[in-house]
Task: inverse folding
């Protein structure tokens, strides 16, 4: 296979530089898109997006409603085929690969608690996820009781996601924030190299949102995190790299400091509300109105 082309081919994110981050080696790249395009009839929802995600990244995708953030994630996970372009995971072209095959290769997104998981406890759901990853889901119930390794991994995940006190409750009865944490824990149980989070804290009340993001930020360095989030306070405290999407294409990319200082970004976000993000001042409204 030919070597991956550098990110941002048509629109280098770092001025004239051809590499996304000069201090990082190419071997640090875990996921790339190359000139990805997605059209819905006349709408170009993804417009030649070239993105590079590095090992252990804390990479935020931001942009106004309808910018194409979710559409991009859908093409990464494989639920939506791109109209043009390529997706490369760990040097392998996965553009045509089925979603479950991508998960097996380490590209994982959260999925909503379905009816099955809602009827189980967090411990049972995690045991199912861990056993499934090991190809033992067909006999998940018995290994959960007996397999010390699965039990230990579940305990560790429950502690990591602050769910230990809720381990044996019916998931349907958990507080909403705890359900969202369980969704992330279930994704992490797949041992992702890249974890894709599309508004993981949406609908969760105030302080709990920060808890969720802090838990994600504390994931080990083996896990690169790509986060979509509209709450700029959360984004700026989480991200080490940010890509700004507008009308389907990459407006710019950089560190949080570069993004906060970028006049183009400030114009998109109506300036004033962005200014407060840098100083971390309180009561700064989210620059984009959020649907729940
Ligand atoms: N399945 C679809 N069919 C037709 N158009 C779609 C489809 N999915 C998305 N779009 C359009 O593509 C564009 C990008 O939508 P997308 O949901 O990716 O934006 P977003 O950045 O995730 O927005 P938000 O912040 O509101 O979640 C929008 O114009 C949207 O209407
Ligand atoms: Mg979206």
Result:
């Amino acid at each position: 296979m030919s070597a991956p082309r550098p990110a941002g081919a048509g629109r280098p994110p770092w001025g004239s530089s051809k590499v996304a981050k000069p201090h990082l080696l190419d071997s640090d790249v875990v996921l790339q898109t190359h000139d990805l395009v997605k059209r819905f009839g006349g709408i170009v929802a993804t417009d030649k997006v070239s993105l590079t995600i590095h090992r252990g990244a804390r990479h935020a995708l931001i942009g106004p409603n309808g910018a194409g953030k979710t559409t991009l994630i859908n093409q990464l996970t494989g639920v939506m085929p791109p109209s043009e372009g390529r997706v490369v995971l760990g040097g392998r072209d996965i553009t045509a690969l089925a979603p479950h095959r991508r998960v097996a290769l380490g590209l994982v997104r959260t999925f909503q608690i379905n009816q099955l998981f809602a009827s189980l406890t967090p411990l049972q759901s995690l045991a199912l996820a861990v056993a499934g990853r090991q190809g033992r889901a067909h006999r998940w119930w018995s290994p959960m009781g007996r397999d010390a390794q699965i039990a230990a991994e579940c305990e560790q995940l429950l502690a990591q996601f602050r769910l230990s006190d809720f381990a044996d409750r019916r998931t349907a009865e958990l507080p909403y924030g705890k359900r969202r944490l369980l969704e992330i824990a279930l994704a992490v149980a797949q041992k992702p190299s890249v974890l894709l989070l599309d508004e993981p804290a949406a609908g969760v009340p105030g302080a709990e949102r920060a808890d969720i993001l802090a838990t994600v930020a504390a994931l080990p360095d083996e896990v690169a995190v790509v986060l979509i989030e509209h709450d700029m306070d959360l984004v700026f405290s989480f991200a080490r790299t940010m890509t700004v999407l507008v009308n389907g294409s990459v407006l710019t990319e950089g560190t949080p400091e570069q993004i906060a200082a970028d006049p183009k970004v400030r114009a998109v976000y109506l300036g004033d509300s962005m200014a407060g993000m840098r100083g971390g001042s309180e009561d700064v409204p989210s620059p984009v109105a959020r649907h729940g």
In short: Residues 1-22, 275-292 have pLDDT under 50 and may be disordered. Residues 69-70 surround magnesium ion (ligand 2) (CB under 6 Å). The first strand starts at residue 29 and ends at 40.
